[in-house]
Write a structure and sequence with these properties.
Blueprint lengths: L1 E6 L6 H10 L4 E3 H11 L1 H11 L12 H8 L3 H24 L6 E5 L14 E6 L2 H11 L4 H8 L5 H7 L2 E4 L6 H16 L2
Parallel strand pairs: 1-3, 1-4, 2-3, 4-5
Helix pairs in contact: 2-3, 2-5, 3-5
Bound molecules: dephospho coenzyme A and adenosine-5'-triphosphate.
Amino acid sequence: MLKIGITGNIGSGKTTVSKLFEVLGIPVFYADTAAKNMMTGDPQLVADIRNAFGDAAYFTDGVLNRKYLANIVFNDDAQLAKLNALTHPAVFRAFDIWVAGIKEAPYVIKEAALLFESASYKMCDYSLLVTAPLKLRIERVTRRDDISPAQVEAREAKQLTQEKKRELADYIIENDETQLLIPQVLKLHETFLQLATP
Ligand SMILES: CC(C)(COP(=O)(O)OP(=O)(O)OC[C@H]1O[C@@H](n2cnc3c(N)ncnc32)[C@H](O)[C@@H]1O)[C@@H](O)C(=O)NCCC(=O)NCCS
Ligand SMILES: Nc1ncnc2c1ncn2[C@@H]1O[C@H](COP(=O)(O)OP(=O)(O)OP(=O)(O)O)[C@@H](O)[C@H]1O
């Protein structure tokens, strides 16, 4: 099964692009959502996170306290590395299980914020980067989330630069609002269908 990894820096539009591929019938695995599901649903991971970050990482009803955790990890590289070391292996395993369960698709997509940083692109056949200028990405994320521009920039600083990712990516979608997204997605869909044809 052909595997395409979709990534992009914070606010680039990788989830928006992934949803367009879903509309075309392509199964998409959302690594970040999988991570979050396991961070509340996998008892071993929950115990590890409580041990590493304290019981305050969870509300009393078991919901992950994302603000608390974000405040710790996005202000301290060692803490972020600790969280990544706990969550990423679990996400990798979940992706393999998910792919094994897909029977009838020409190709599948893994959407992951940290595709290149976590080396999970090595488990994909091709990578697709969604890009947009930082100013626009900050505007998008502060409009979408309860987060300040400085907090968006702090997260951006924890990710490989967009320029570095341009060098690593096999395909690029420019989501800077000068080009429409849908035609770019349709063109790549055709390319991936051809790549998937034996
Ligand atoms: C720290 C958490 C709780 C903060 O939650 P919050 O709702 O504030 O942010 P959200 O998850 O929506 O992430 C928004 C964006 O932040 C950036 N981001 C998230 N996790 C990371 C990370 N580990 N390193 C760098 N940037 C990150 C990404 O651009 C992401 O798309 C959450 O991001 C998390 O659980 N991260 C660990 C899981 C993970 O590594 N996910 C990344 C892909 S697998
Ligand atoms: N071309 C576009 N035009 C207008 N709004 C857009 C466009 N692309 C994305 N957005 C909006 O910008 C915000 C960020 O997009 P999206 O959530 O897809 O990005 P992301 O890369 O997955 O973000 P994050 O890294 O924060 O998870 C969303 O609110 C989305 O609706």
